[in-house]
Protein: S41 family peptidase
Amino acid sequence: MGKKLKNSGLVGLGVVAGIAISLQFSAMAQKPLDPPLPLEELRQLADVFSLIKSDYVEPVEDKKLLTEAISGMVASLDPHSAYLDKKAYAELREGSQGKFVGLGIEIGQSEDGYIKIVAPIEDSPAWRAGIKPGDLISRLDNTPLKGLSMDDSIKKMRGEPNSKVMLTVLRKGEAEPLTFNITREEIHQKSVKGKLVEPGYAWLRISQFQEPTVDDMAAKIAELYKQDPNLKGLILDLRNDPGGVLQGAIGVAAAFLPKDSPIVSTNGQLPDQKQIFYGRPEYYELRNESDALAKLPAAVKKVPMVVLVNTGSASASEIVAGALQDYKRADIIGSQTFGKGSVQTIRQLTADTAVKLTTARYYTPNGRSIQAKGITPDVAVDEYADGDGLNALRTREADLDKHLSNDREAEGQKTKRDEMEEQLRAIALEKKRKPLDYGSDDDFQLHQALNHLKGLPVQLAKQSTTVVTTETGLKK
Structure:
């Protein structure tokens, strides 16, 4: 790979107010085709193209037909390969940098179908306009948002810098809907936050792996140790972290592991997809030449740790959890992770379009494949004391059509938890849980992680109703 990691890698899932896919950017190689093009099939494609142009009920642009043909060809491979048009490619690039053009709000789906404000981002247009946590967005301009998917809602809130939008908001205690005229601008997201949850114990949350994540994490850890130099335990929260920049995942894992430890490996057809990534600055530094981890307190390498994960923890977050689990550096608490263990490479087609193509699989330091399996927690703990809540409703990689297989373990081996999944889903639907506020006083899994670190009883997942006592928060 050389002494410097030249391309920016991304790993993750879906679109969450930005991006989350596993990527490496590179120009499309110009090389002889081997094997040669299948001429007979290409003739059929040309015949269909000609047939549509001559016989379809109304005229269709050539560009539309060819673009859709490319899109369909790539999308037929697996759930994460895709053709990126101008808009999608721009969103991908800006999301990896932790910035986007929009209103500056974190949103969730409310129980009655509205888009709910989780929190406005500090000093964003929404924050300055007076949007508050708990507000429900009923309309965006003249478009009702009730029942609209999260992804579609996010796309409608995005736009060009300085463009205006009117939000109609329902607020508890207000008799009439409120309207806010907001001007979109470039928003800078913070993917890292943390606090002392009680004396001696810190909570560090990473919501997405972006280019600034390693620097932001190092700064937050230094701040936590300044508040309490004698930390007895650290909880790394990766729940609902869909992934992001690969270098971010390597740097986060490297912060807690011995120097130069192998963090993750990849394997694919191309030689440059057969790599091992180590916990060294050249593998995780993107923003400058200095090592963000160099000034971390030495104690961070040995502080007892728990990593919180759930079904929404995907790709880059699975890389971190898998590495810390393989080295027995931390105990993993929560539920089986998503299982996205594939690498997507971005091949640029034109100045503003590209193809995102799956080119390799990821493996933990011990050679475990993450793909379509995920990371199994050391201690299974539900989201709530009486069940797994909304987490039980989430889709995993193995549920997706045409998902890439796991090349090292049989997918047919179902766990006891898998066998109970339909029952768990039914319970979650019946309870109609609100989205969990991570790090709050009501965060059941966080409290169980604290108990684990202290050697106190931990309430396990519902399928095993026993309450266990752990001797220590760190496996020996």
In short: The CA atoms of residues 311 and 391 lie 6 Å apart. The mean pLDDT is 84.
